[in-house]
Amino acid sequence: MTLLRDHETQATAPSRKKRLFFRSFVVIAALAIFWAVAGIFLYVAPPADEPKHADVLFVLGPPDQRMVYAEQLMQQGYAPTIAVSSPVGKDGRFTADICGAQRSYRVICFHSEPFTTQGEARTLRDLSEQYGWKSANVLTAQFHVTRARVIVSRCYTGDLHMVTDRRSLPMFSWTNATYSWAYQYLYQTAAFVKVAVHPEC
């Protein structure tokens, strides 16, 4: 029996695998870079509106540190009414501090069903019909404003201004992963897919 070895064939197979691996790596790296750059314009420094005098300042949940900016806008007279999306505690009360406070302006607290941006957008539509609001400043964090604009615009037909509470987040956080750019990139991107799949109000 004679065994012949084709040295050229043996040498070519590994090199093809290397080329395939290299090409795959280049494609993945290019997509990662594109995603990172696109995220700067979508999440880190997205286009947003300056607050305008409107019928309502509508604060998307959660009512966290953005409430400091919200109350500053109210004190500056940007709207006669503030509407705040708030969780509800086990006692059935709204958990946002402003919901139980006295203010010189009207305070409306609500808990949308579902408790999502889409649910909040529907609530803005319904409250606008109830109170005759024709214009709204909608306040949310900058990493959420692009997606929120799409969702709210599907439900609300009035004069809309998407206002951001800008934050400086760490790239990663082991203590509070939610407030990190790594988490927001992943979460907001996945949420954008949901927005594309469900285009209704």
What do you see in this structure?
By secondary structure, the chain is α/β, with parallel strands linked by helices. Helix content is 47%, strand content 14%. It has 5 helices and 5 strands; from the N terminus they run αβαββαβαβα. A 5-stranded parallel sheet has the order 3-2-1-4-5, with helices on both faces. Helix 4 links the parallel strand 4 (135-141) and strand 5 (159-165). It is elongated.
Level of helix content?
40-55%
Shape: elongated
Q: Give average pLDDT, whole number.
A: 86
List how many beta strands DSSP finds: 5
Number of helices: 5
From the N-terminal CA to the C-terminal CA, the straight-line distance is 75 Å
Order of helices and strands: HEHEEHEHEH
Oligomer: single chain
Radius of gyration: 24 Å
Strand order of the largest sheet: 3-2-1-4-5
* Unreliably modeled segments: none
SS content category: alpha/beta
Q: Sketch the major β-sheet.
A: 5 strands, parallel
Beta-strand percentage?
5-15%
